[in-house]
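Purpose: get a first structural picture of the assembly so the mutagenesis plan has something to point at.
Setup: two entries, given in the order below. No constraints added.
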Amino acid sequence: MTTELQLIDRFLSPFARKGAGMVLGPGDDCAVLRASNGTDQCVTTDALVEGVHFTSELFSDADIGHKALAVNLSDLAAMGAVPRWFVCSVACRASDAARVPRIARGMAALAARAGILLAGGNFSRADTLSLHITAGGEVPRGTALTRSGAKAGDLIYVTGTFGDAALALALRSLQRQNKAVLLHQLRPEPRLAVGLIARRHAHAAIDVSDGLLQDLGHVLEASGVGAHIDAHLVPVSQTFRDVAANLDLALTGGEDYELALFIPAAKASAFERECERVGQKVSCIGAAVKGGGLSVDHAPHLKRGGFDHFAGVRNPA
Amino acid sequence: MTTELQLIDRFLSPFARKGAGMVLGPGDDCAVLRASNGTDQCVTTDALVEGVHFTSELFSDADIGHKALAVNLSDLAAMGAVPRWFVCSVACRASDAARVPRIARGMAALAARAGILLAGGNFSRADTLSLHITAGGEVPRGTALTRSGAKAGDLIYVTGTFGDAALALALRSLQRQNKAVLLHQLRPEPRLAVGLIARRHAHAAIDVSDGLLQDLGHVLEASGVGAHIDAHLVPVSQTFRDVAANLDLALTGGEDYELALFIPAAKASAFERECERVGQKVSCIGAAVKGGGLSVDHAPHLKRGGFDHFAGVRNPA
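Result (structure tokens, whole complex):
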């Protein structure tokens, strides 16, 4: 029988235990984080539940650990925050004990790359494996990127490509799989570098995780503007282009964990140049306009929508 | 069908939406917390899982909401922190939708009393209801109470009474129940006021949630001291005294969510006086001694131990 302390030890072992700003790390009742003077702390929480967000058939344990942290880092990226700390609440069966170190390794590898420190955690017994992460990051006081600052005339940029994560689940049900596409589902890459650049240029930003159109809609609503985009400008992978019948999955698929950024036209070329300098591809897909609503060129098949956890739209299990 | 946004709206509705230090609250990708200059931020996470930590037979939905937050606040109290913010990751069935507002109300009532603000959250679909909370609090820089500062000669104080939470589960299996005892299981009261006082007096502190002896052991180990306590000095309720065959449950039962505090003798009377002034009962149960180990007078039946989530010691389900 594995004890809770053994589980915790196994979970902690691959993580860095010291770092700037962590006065007290895992092992006490709380972690103590020392905020630098003048900074704002951004905090986010997101969960991965077995059978809902992942299955063992598709995901390795390291994939699960990576993705649980990545989806939180993507939220920090959308604020333009520098990742600082996270805590992880794990619910699992006793029989999952052997998986814990593998999950932790996948998580720790991404944590090290992102420069974020594990500050604490908790294990509970449950019939289903789930990981609930809360992450904190810093921005200079008053500079956090939000959904609410977009203005008519802003150019709308997105990172990476869209639709592969949803396509991976569709291909799986068709019994054919493509490794590059699958990687977007298993190992989303948080766009932290672009977020930091955007903090100096963008009026508004959002983490696109529930489908591009739905998440753009959140920015428009919060900012009181409309937008016009061209589906042909939405970046997709070569495989997506070869395999997908139409662009619906790229516009509504969900789980992309890319950023959408509203950049004033005067700053667009500086923004593009700085992203190129750090090796991050960004694509302009349209612009914000006066009034409300989102119009989309070149999307004849389009059914508006995105992912809702309680509407049963998508379930990989 | 209830949508995720409806669930979130229902969850948010009873909470205060504005407060000092919250630059940006729920509704964006992250919450933004403005740390006052010179403070340390304490962060903790703890979860409540249906069938493991609670059952609907014993707990009302409001009880569940209260307890999920209370167990986190108890960790903040043990650091001497002023509660500031928390986030809540909820996993539930679609059929739990009606329970969400009731859970939120129980949580919000405690949040208002404790002066802590909901800063964000997340809903996931799952086959079992669970609540995963991360909470943050502040202490002046470098003043957080930890487990590691106890010194030989310190007097060991505890808050409240012990054993009722465990007794409530034992009585339930015996088909007889006592309301006052049950309240300790359903509605633990975080000892925030005592934590704040202790921050100015104590060498070390711990949240006692896994059994008094086990949690005292954590302080002794972290501090490199031993301790001697008298079981007859461990405070118990009148009902506990009437019903329980011996003191085992008070020493090892778990879920007390009381504080144990190591106070230098010279500060003991000031500590007692200040606790009395805020209406909080504290009891001296022994002292820290040189060397290691914990000796307990007047506990002839004692089996050392506490609660381990993965050893199957206790399960209310």
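The first strand of chain A starts at residue 22 and ends at 24.
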